[in-house]
Amino acid sequence: MINFYSENTFELKGISDHENWIKRVIASEGKKTGEISFIFCDDDYLLDINQQYLDHDTFTDIISFDTSVGNILNGDIFISTQRVEENAAEYNVAFSEELQRVIIHGILHLCGYKDKSQDEAQLMRRKEEEKMQMFHVEQ
Predict the structure, then answer these.
(1) Do 78 and 41 form a contact (C-beta atoms < 8 A)?
(2) Burial, 43: exposed, middle or buried (Cβ in 10 Å; 0-12, 13-18, 19+)?
(3) Contact 110, 36 (CB under 8 A)
(4) Crossing angle of helices 15-28 and 95-110, rounded to 10°
(5) Helix (H, G, I), strand (E, B) or coil at 4
(6) 19-58: pLDDT as tens digits
(7) Which residues sit opposite 2 in a β-bridge?
């Protein structure tokens, strides 16, 4: 089950399209969908989580809490829509495209991908691009 919640005024458009895409991405990685919650919030909300749980005092666009068991993906993925909006402007892409990139970034973390080292980050970017293409595939 995939849930979408909002702690700010953001409302995800095309929920069923996003849900189907996320499930296809998870299956493409040989995993199964457990219970995954996306929580859309603002910078201050996510900063508080970053400080409280990760001891980081910085703004970020996403924080993933992975509670997966084996190949069944479970977790909470917090996304700052303010960060996504700023990143979209900085990279000159549509908000919806940057949001999809961040959503799938969180899913890839649940799949076990990391992005701490340069090699890990490069693989993560390649996987993001690959999975972004899957959003446009007819179902």
Answers:
(1) yes
(2) middle
(3) yes
(4) 40
(5) strand
(6) 999 999 999 999 999 999 999 999 999 999 999 988 888 8
(7) 36
For the chain, how long is the longest CA-to-CA vector? 42
Lookup: tokens for 37: 């919650």
Task: Determine the 3-state secondary structure of 44 from DSSP.
Answer: helix
Question: Residues 63-95: pLDDT tens digits?
Answer: 999 999 999 999 999 999 999 999 999 999 999
CA distance linking residue 78 with residue 89, whole number of Å:
20
The DSSP code for 69 is B
Q: 3-class SS at 15?
A: helix
Residue 118: Cβ within 10 Å count: 8
Amino acid of residue 87: N
* 46: exposed, middle or buried (Cβ count in 10 Å: 0-12, 13-18, 19+): buried
The pair of structure tokens assigned to 6 is 């909002």
The amino acid at residue 12 is: L
Q: Are 80 and 15 in contact (CB under 8 A)?
A: no
